[in-house]
Structure formats: C-alpha cells, structure tokens
Amino acid sequence: MGRPKRIQFAGACYLVALQGNNRQDLFVSNQDRRLFLAQLKAYKERFALKVYAYSLLGRSASLLLETVRPNLSAAMQGLNTQYTKSFNAAHGTVGHVFQGRYKAWVVDKDTHLAEMTRWVHLECAREGLLDKPWRYQWSSCAAYVEAQHKDPLVDSGAVLRDFGGVRLKQSVRYLQYLRERPASAGDGLPIVGGVAIGGSEFLDRVGAWRATPAPRPVPIEAARRIIAEVAARRGVSEEKILGRVQWREVSSVRREAVHRVWRETRMGVTELARLFQRTPSAISQTIRALEDSRLSSMN
Q1: I need a surface site. Which of 67, 134, 223, 270 has the fewest CB within 10 A?
Q2: Backbone angle region of 247, left / alpha / beta, with phi > 0 → left and psi within -120 to 50 → alpha
Q3: pLDDT (tens digit, 9 = 90+) per residue, 93-139?
Q4: DSSP H or E segment with residue 204
Q5: Burial code of 117-154, b = ≥16 C-beta within 10 A, e = fewer?
Q6: Res. 1 pLDDT band, cuts 50 70 90
Q7: Rounded distance, CA 200 to CA 174, Å?
Q8: Contact, 7 vs 71, CB < 8 A?
Q9: Phi/psi at 102 (nearest 5 deg)?
Q10: What is the pTM of this model?
Q11: pLDDT tens digits, residue range 253-269?
Q12: Cα gap 70→59, rounded to integer Å
C-alpha cells in the first residue's frame, strides 16, 4: 500500500516535525543549527513560505510553516536534501540524517496559530533543556518576547497582532501567554483524524481539500515575465538571453534569469533547457553553482 499523499493547498499552515535518523542527533554543534537556519531562510525565500515558529533541539526540530503556494513537499524535500549534504560534508559521514519521512499536520491557523507557536516554543522546557524557554537560543521565541528583536526568518506579526497594543505590550502579553502553560502540562496536540490540528469542522474542510485535484501549474507565463524583468534591468534583449549568444555579459544575465526562473516557478531542468536552448546538464550546473554561492554567503 502506497504512502498517503500530502495535504497541500495554497495558504495551508503546517506543524512539521523532523527527527534524526536512528535517534541520532540532527545537530551535533551550534554551527549545524546556524547552517540549518540559513538554509531554512533560503528555502523560505525560494518557496514563498511563512515561518511562524521553529525549535531546534538535539535529535529533533519543529517548524510551524505556511505555504503561500501548495508546495510543502517540494520545499521540505529540498531543505532536507540540502542539509543532509551539508551535514555529511561537515562531519565526514554518509547516508541519511533524517528519520524517514517528515511528519506534518495541517493547522487551523484561524483558531490554533498562537497555540502552536507556544507549543513549539515550550519544546525545550518539555525536554528539560531550560526552565525558561524564552532564554533558549535555538528557537524563534525571542522574536515574540523581545520587542526589539528583529529576525527576518520569523513571521511573528500575524500572531502578535492578536495580543493587541503596541509591539512592547504584545511581547509582554505573549510572555504571559507562555507562562500560562507550564511544561509539566505535557505535549499533547489537538490532532483530529491523524492529519489536522483543529476542530471537527476544520477536519471536514481538510477532507474536501484532499479530495480536490490540485490544478496543474502553468509556469511558462511567470518565466516569461521574469525574463522580461531581468532583460529590462540588465539592458540585454530577451532574444539574446534565450538565444545562443555566448558573449560574457549575455551569459551572466542568462545565468541570473535561469536561476530566478528555477527558484520562482519550479520549472524542471528539462523545461528550462528547452526554454533557454541549453542542455539539461548546463542548466543543472548553472543552478548548482548559483545556489551553492548563495547559501555559502549566508553562513
């Protein structure tokens, strides 16, 4: 019997749980955690994700994400693959880093968003790492409880707005909200139907989404728009970008266009090769080189 399909739809919110393979550590050092967060930020930008909360422990990590587009599987596959390569390279290891398939529950963000951020932020206390979770360095809690804290990775505004008042009051009230639920209260989640966090009505809506076939994406229009933007900004005609001209200045612009189209439309390598009149291997090399350069600059 095959694995159940992921529930994916535009605007879906998920609690994602990651575990280390064979109960081993996902993060051996703080540098591993920094690298994971840098890569999460890169994939947030590439897949237009919203990151409401995260917590990185030793053997596990929890993420509270929203997908603007129905692309959780692609985003998590890319993130897990990228981190696995980086982890193995850093530690001289081979093989799997994550335990099988990640777990993900669809969250009713209208009723459970704040509660799920609290659940994620209390993880370190439940694991006995710190009695005061707002002092844990490797979670997004500081983006909520410290009024002056700026973290471009974390989209805290949607939650804090519900606490009313100016930013300082929001942070104070969120801290009180954390303290209202001690770690000793346990880690139970209001999971319904094994797939959702919310009420029975939300589960019915999830079932309807699940039964609705996902529309086929039509990325070519978006690709043409991106190419036109790059051409106008760099002063090179679209014909040259899509043609076979090998001049250095044109090749540089073409590489930028390939990379942007790949990141923003999720076109496959074969489709990109056809569009830009290049071989699939040349497209793959361009993407790999620019992605490696971009991720390295974040470390």
Answers
A1: 270
A2: beta
A3: 988 999 888 999 999 999 999 999 999 999 998 887 777 888 999 99
A4: helix 200-211
A5: bbbbbbbbbbbeeeeebbebebbbbbbbbeeeeeeeeb
A6: very low
A7: 27
A8: no
A9: -60, 155
A10: 0.73
A11: 999 999 999 888 878 88
A12: 28
Beta-carbon count within 10 A of 59 CB: 16
Q: What tokens were used for 246?
A: 């090998």
**What pLDDT is stored for residue 35 in this prediction?**
95
In sequence order, what DSSP letters do the residues of 213-232 get, joined into one string? PPPPP-HHHHHHHHHHHHHH
Q: b/e per residue, 64-96, with b = 16+ CB within 10 A?
A: bbbbebbbbebbbebbbebbbebbeeeeeeeee
Q: What domains lie within the chain, and their CATH numbers?
A: 12-211 (3.30.70.1290), 219-298 (1.10.1750.10)
How far is 121 from 212, CA to CA, in rounded Å? Answer: 34
CB 92 within 8 A of CB 13: no
Q: What is the pLDDT of residue 87?
A: 93
Q: Summarize pLDDT for 33-72 with one digit per residue, the tens.
A: 999 999 999 989 888 899 999 999 989 999 999 998 888 9
Amino acid at 285: Q
Q: Which two tokens stand for residue 100?
A: 């099988």
Six-digit token pair at 64? Answer: 């509270």
Cα–Cα dist 95/208, whole Å: 38
pLDDT confidence of residue 264? 84
Q: Which residues pair with 67 in a beta bridge?
A: 12, 49
Confidence bin at 297 (pLDDT 50/70/90)? low
Does residue 212 register a pLDDT over 70? no
Cβ proximity of 108 and 169 under 8 Å: no
- The secondary element (H helix, E strand) that includes residue 122 is none
* Separation between Cα atoms, residue 283 and residue 266, nearest integer Å: 13
